[in-house]
Amino acid sequence: MKITDINQHRLAYELDGGYDPTWIPEFTQSTLVVELFEVETDEGITGISATATTPGGYETDDGFLEFLEGMDPYELDAIRTKLNSLNFLGPDPWHIEIALWDIIGKDVGKPIYKLLGGRDRQVPVYASTGEVQPTEERLEYVQNCVDEGIQAVKLRFQSEDPDDDLAVARAVREEFPDLTLMVDANMGWSIRMRGDERRWSQTEALYVATELEEIGGVAWLEEPLPQDQYDRLAELRRNTSIAIAGGESNSGLTPFREYLDHDSLDIYQPDAVFATGIRGGKTVAEMARLHGREFAPHTWSNGLGLAANLHLIAASDSRWCEYPLEPPAWDEQARDFMLESPLTHEDGYISPPNGPGLGVELDWDAIEAAKVDDE
C-alpha cells in the first residue's frame, strides 16, 4: 500500500454566541475553524484527521505529500522520522499520523485501540470548561453536569487576581462536596492574538496550590507555569501535595523525557493531535507508568481529535477522559459538527469508537456547508 495524495479542507462552523477561551487572551471565539485532512492510498483506503487552525488557516497538504508520497502507511517509524523533520521546519505534523492509523485500522478491520493492545472500556469523563465565569454561572454549569452523571469538573483559572478564581472553586466545593475538581491555569502557553498572556510567579503558583490543598478533592493543577520551565515545575511539585499536570502541546517526545528527568510532573497530558501523534502518546503513557506517574491526554480540538485521544486512552491506563464542554457555544454538536454522530458520554462515562480505524463517519453535508470558499 502506498500514500498517493493528501487533501486538505478548511472548515468554519459558527458557534452559538461564542465564548472566551482562557488560552487566547481578550478574544471571543465565535467560529470553530478546522483543517480536515484526507490521506489517500493506491488501495482505495482513505484516512482522515483534523487539526485546529487560525481563521486564516494554513495550507500544508502539499508539503506533507512531498515528504510522504509513495510511503507505506504501515512504515510508521520511518514516517514519524519524517514528521519530526516537518516539525522542525514549522508545521505541526502529528495529526497526519492519526490519519495513517485510520488507514491501518480500516485495512485490517479493527479499531485503533485494539492495534495498540487496548480494550473497549468505559472511562469516566471530566467536564472541561473553556472560560472563566462568575460563581453563580459556574455553579449552574456544575449542577447540569452532575445531573448528567458527570463526576468531575475542570475549572479554568485566569483572572487577574487568583483569589477570584479560588473563590469560585470554594463555592463549587461547598455546593458539591463529593465532586472531583481539576484546575487548569493555562499558564503553560497561550495564543497571543489580542491581549497579553497572564503568567504566575513561582510565589503565586505555590499560593494557588496551597489554597487548593485546603479546598480538597482536587485531582490536579494543570499548567501552573510555562511548559518548558522544567526546574520551576519540579520545585512547585516538591512543595505541594496537589498533583501537577501538563504537556498537552509539547511537540515530540524530547520534552516528556525532560519532564521525567527533572521530576516536573505527576500527570502527563500529551494530545495526540498537537503533541505526539497516537504512537508517541502511547510511548509517553508507557514512560509515565514506568516512573510511577499518571497519563491523562488533553482532548480539546474537535470530534476527530477527541476520537483519536479516546483510542489512546483505551490503549493506556488513563483514569479520566477530558470532555470539552462550555455550552451553549461549545457543546457536543459544535465540537463534532463534522461527524455523523457526536461522541457523547453516558451517565458520565465514554468508550472509544468501535468501528475500524478511528471508528467514526464524516457528515459530508455538514462539511460541504462549512467549507471556506477561498480554500
Furnish the topology, listing elements before pairings:
Elements: E1 3-19, E2 29-41, E3 46-52, H1 61-68, H2 76-89, H3 94-108, H4 112-115, E4 123-128, H5 135-147, E5 152-156, H6 162-175, E6 180-184, H7 202-215, E7 218-222, H8 230-238, E8 244-246, H9 254-262, E9 267-268, H10 272-290, E10 294-295, H11 303-314, E11 321-324, H12 332-335, E12 349-350, H13 364-370
Parallel strand pairs: 4-5, 4-11, 5-6, 6-7, 7-8, 8-9, 9-10
Antiparallel strand pairs: 1-2, 2-3, 4-12
Helix pairs in contact: 2-3, 3-10, 5-6, 6-7, 10-11
Task: Explain what you see.
The chain has 13 helices and 12 strands. It has helices at 61-68, 76-89, 94-108, 112-115, 135-147, 162-175, 202-215, 230-238, 254-262, 272-290, 303-314, 332-335, 364-370; strands at residues 3-19, 29-41, 46-52, 123-128, 152-156, 180-184, 218-222, 244-246, 267-268, 294-295, 321-324, 349-350. The two termini are 29 Å apart. 45% of the residues are buried. The mean pLDDT is 94.
